[in-house]
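Mods, move this if it's the wrong board.
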Amino acid sequence: MSRPTALVTGASRGIGRAIAERLAPTHDLVLVARDVGHLHQVADACQARGAAAHVIALDVADGPATDAALTGLHVDVLVNNAGVAAIKPFLETTAEEWHRQVDVNVNALYHVVRAVLPGMLARQRGHVCIIGSIAGRNTFVGGACYAGTKHFVMGFAESLMLEVRDAGVGVSVVMPGSVDTDLFPPGTKRDWMLEPRDVAETVAFAVTQPPHVLTHRLEVRPLSPKRPR
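Not the wrong board. Structure tokens:
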């Protein structure tokens, strides 16, 4: 029996790498990110876990490049993980920082899903999983752009879910709280945060439900900022 194929964006490090390695025992993988060197390291780790792994060096914010690279690929599970953040007061946020967050966190969803979804609909099966954030349902100082993009994720994911579920395609959104990644500046106390592998476990749960079951929205948090891991 052939293995399903999962495409993971932002797969070169952090949460994306953890997701790829978690799915490797059960899925073949298409690994997408800009850093081809790190992608090959992830591919090697996934192959050691049993996956066939194909690497695509790509900036998913580039619409034409994404269309050319991903259209026509057979993808059973799409994990939209690529994301960036510039957490700072609005008046300190540069236009470049603003547009980069919107391009990667919002517009890239269009580019990637638009390339992959037609194949899922034609086969009448598939799963789109988007990595959102608890910031998608609350706000914080310094999050004018980042939280705004994650609020978009919530609306997009639920609307898409309603649109494609009758065709056999599921849509899930995973909403982590604080995760121990390089998103945070040096010196940040991170020993209480989720680890990338915790988010990966949540993604694996979402995309391996029985075919007639959809777990659409999953919120995963650190137990307490007062309790180190």
